[in-house]
Amino acid sequence: MSNRRVLLLLAAFVVGAVAIVAGALTLLPPGPGTVTSQVTIGGPYELVDQDGQAVTQETFAGSPSLVFFGFTHCPDICPTALYEMSQLFEALGPDARKASGLFITVDPERDTPEVLKAYLGSFHPSIQGLSGTPEQIAAVTRAYRAYAKKVPTQGDDYTMDHTAIVYLMDKDGTFIAPFNLKRPPEEAAAELRRYF
To answer: Distance (Å, rounded) from C-alpha 42 to C-alpha 40?
Structure first.
């Protein structure tokens, strides 16, 4: 084997080894002193509840919250999520008062406090409806990094595309993780109890 061929094989080996080491280093967790960026979800807001009372994030401080964005004309996703949330609160029994369910409308034009109150009458009383001006709803939607968009349908009617995540917020209003309601209510209740 010629010297040139040996050198080419050696160079290929070195390049491959460097690539493997570089790839492995990117998978390691950041070391001490490394700055990582975290996306903030949630934050201050000013809305009105289903009784027309002004509320802020401080209104629900001291207990964990499950936050869901939706609207009362939603055909299936919203009522399903609210039903599952109701089942969770039922499974909590007396502990249901130690947590909040917040249904924040993405359709403030139609979802007035009165409409929300009538709609939520079919679900567990621990779930409260929140509305506000279009600007207030846009602000809280941005704060939670949620998505909502009006989609025209027939005539002057419309529906809303929106995020279908249930946000688990701790006692201080800090986002913990998306909350999975697609499981037995007792299992979901057991997880929520960890944040009381």
So the answer is: 7
